[in-house]
Amino acid sequence: MQTFIFKVGTLISRSGQIMRVLRIIADGRVQLEAESDNSIANVDYFQLLKEYSERRLEFIEDQLTPQIMFAPTERSLFTFPEEVQSDAIRKKRYLDFFREMGPLVSTPTVLAPLIAQCACKIGDQNPPSPVTVYRWYRELIRHQGDCRALISRHDRKGGGGSRLHPEVIDLLNKTIDERYLGDKPDSIEAVWQEVVSRVDKRNEFYVAAERLQKPSRATIYRAIKSVDKYDEAAAHFGTRIAKMRFRTSGLGAPVKRILERVEIDHTPLDLFVIDEITGLPQGRPTVTIAIDAYSKMPVGMHIGFSGTSIEAVFACIRHALVPKTYIKEDYPEIKHDWPCYGHFESLVCDNGFEFHSLELERIALELGTQLHFCPKRQPYYKGSIERFLKTLNYQFSRMLPGHSFAKWFQREDYDPLKDAVLTFDQLLRFVHRWIVDVYMQDLNRGINSSPYRKWAEGAAVSQPRLPPNLDRLDIMLGRTIGRTVFHYGIELHNLRYNGPALLSLRRQYGEQVKVEVRYYFDDLSVIHVIDPITKQAIPVLALDLEYTRGLNLNQHRLICARAREINEGTIDSSSIARAMSEIREITREMSFSKSQRTRQRAAKIKGVKQRSTPPPASQQNHDTTRPEPWVSRRPSPVELNNLPDTETVVFPRHSNPWDC
C-alpha cells in the first residue's frame, strides 16, 4: 500500500474538492491550491490531520513521478489467488533479507551466496536467480517502495478482448437475446446450433477468405455464463420471481414493545388426523396463527377444517385477546403457562378475501386496531408469521406419525394416510405442548432470547390491556345483517327467533321495526338484536332451540338444501327433521368413505375445530394408537325452568350435536 505525506505537489481530495499542496509554511500551516479555480487556502496542519481522521480528506493515489511509469494495483492482496499471494510474500522476504544486509549489490558473485542463505532461512526449495532478484528490487524502487509492485499480475496477460469477429459477436448476442432470454428459453445446445446456422447462412454468399469462423460450444457457454443473472432469472421465471430472488432484506418494520405489531396468516398443517369414530383419516386441518413481532410469541391460534375463512380469523383474534387460563386445567402435563393476551395496536395481513372483508374492518375499528396489508405476492413483508408457520410444519408436524410433506412429490413411496393415528383432540394437546414448552422456551436467533423471556420483559414495561368484558367481545365478533322485526319475530337463515325482548321493541318502535342483528357462525341457537336507540345488544333465542343448539351455519345450509330437494322448495319442521336425519346419515357415510377429500368434507360439515374452551383433560385420549369406534352421548334436554333470562344473559357456545 502506498503511503503519503503533506509535501509540495501532493494531491488531496478535501470534502470532494481536488487540491494540491502548493507550499509548506514555517508556522505549521499548509497552503493548498484548488485544481478547479486555482483559489488559495491556508490550512493548519493539525486541521488537515483531523479532517483525515474524520474521513473528510484523502490522498489521491495515482500521483506518478518521472521514475514511476505506472501506478501499482489498487486491489488488496487477499483478492488474488493464494498462489499469487504466496509468491508476493516470498519476494518480499528475499528483499527484506537483502535490505538488512545493507545496500544491494547486484553482481551475481555477491548475490548468489546471499540468495542461498535466505532460501535456507525461509525454507525455499527453488531459490531465484540473481537476475530475478535484481528485477524485483528494480520494480520496488520504480514504485517508491510500494510492495504491491511485487504482486504478479497474471490476469493482465494475454490479448485484450475477444478474438471473435465483430459480426460473429453481434450474431451471438442477438441469438442469446432471442433464444436464451426470450419468452420460451432454449437450452445452451440449441443456442449454439442456432448461432452456427446463422453463421453458415451468412457464409453462403462470401468467398472462402471472407467467411466467418464458427464459434465453439465453449465460447457459447462462456458468453451465456457472462449474462446478468437477474436478466436470466427474469427471462426464465418472470420479473416477479427475479425481484424476489435478488431482493435485499433489512431489519423489517421497527417494533419497540409487545403487541405493537401482530401478524396473522393461515397454513394447512402437514399432518393428517383421523376420525374418532371411524378411525379413518379426516385430512389436514388448517391452522390460523397470530404472532407478536416484538417477542415472536404466538398470541392466538385456531385449528379446524373450515379453511381460510373469516370465522377462523375471528376465532384466532378472540383467542389472542383473552387470557389462556385453561392451559393448567385442561393440559396438566404442560409445565409452563401461555402468558399472551391483550389488545394489539396493528394487525398485519396478506391479501386473502377473508382479510379484506368489511367484517374484519369493523372489528378493527371497534377494537382500535390498525389493519396493514402486505404487497401482493410478497409474503416476506410479514416474515415473523411466515417463519413461524414453517417452523411449525418442519419441527412439529414432521415428528408425529401421519405427517405429510409440503409438496406431494417429496413423499415418494411414503403414505401418510397409513401412518395417521392422532385424533383431533390429541392434535390440539400436542400443539399446545409444543408451543408452550418447546417453541416459547427455545432460543430465537432473531431476538437473541427466548420468546417467553422477551414477552415477560416487554410485559413488565407495557402491560397488556383487556377488553371490558367477554360478553361484549363475543357480540363484537359476530356477523352483522339487517332484518325487520315482525309479529313472528326475526327470520334469519330460514330460522325464526322470537321472545319477550322483541315484543318490547315492537311496542316501543313500531310493528315492523328494522334492526341490526348479530349472528354467530358456530351457534345458531341465539342471536343478538341491536336496539335502534340505545344500541344495546339484546339476546334472542331460536324458537326451535332443540334443533339449533350447537348447530353451525354450514350444517344448517346443507340441511336446508336437502329439505328443498325433498319438498321442492317448501320448508317445514317435518322436512327439516327428515333432512337433518338424512344429512347425519350421509355425513356418517362420508366419514367411512375411501376418498380422503370426502372424509375431510365430512369433518367440515361436522364442525371439527378448536373450541373456544378446550375439553377437560380427562375426556381426551393420551394414547397415540388408533382408537376404537365409539358413539358419543346426546346432550341432556334442558328444563324450561332452568333456561337463563334472555334479556340479560349472553348464551355461550354449546356442544356439537353432529358428533355421531
Overview of the molecule:
With 660 residues, this protein is α+β, with helices and mostly antiparallel strands. The chain has five domains: 11-59, no CATH class; 77-156, no CATH class; 166-245, Arc Repressor Mutant, subunit A, CATH 1.10.10; 262-470, Nucleotidyltransferase, domain 5, CATH 3.30.420.10; 480-642, no CATH class. 38% of the residues lie in helices and 14% in strands. It has 22 helices and 18 strands. The protein has a five-stranded antiparallel sheet with strand order 4-3-2-1-5, with helices on one face. Helix 5 (166-180) packs across helix 6 (188-203) and helix 20 (553-567) crosses helix 21 (573-591). The longest helix is centred in the first third of the chain and has 19 residues, at 82-100. The protein is elongated. Residues 64-70 and 613-660 have low confidence and may be disordered.
Topology diagram in text:
Elements: E1 11-14, E2 17-24, E3 29-34, E4 40-44, H1 45-53, E5 57-59, H2 82-100, H3 108-122, H4 130-142, H5 166-180, H6 188-203, H7 217-225, H8 229-237, H9 239-245, E6 262-268, E7 273-274, E8 281-283, E9 286-292, E10 298-304, H10 310-321, H11 326-330, E11 346-349, H12 358-367, E12 370-373, H13 383-396, H14 416-419, H15 424-439, H16 451-461, H17 470-476, E13 479-485, E14 490-492, E15 495-497, H18 500-509, E16 513-520, E17 523-530, E18 537-541, H19 545-548, H20 553-567, H21 573-591, H22 596-606
Parallel strand pairs: 6-11, 11-12
Antiparallel strand pairs: 1-2, 1-5, 2-3, 3-4, 6-9, 7-8, 9-10, 13-16, 14-15, 16-17, 17-18
Helix pairs in contact: 2-3, 5-6, 6-7, 8-9, 20-21, 21-22
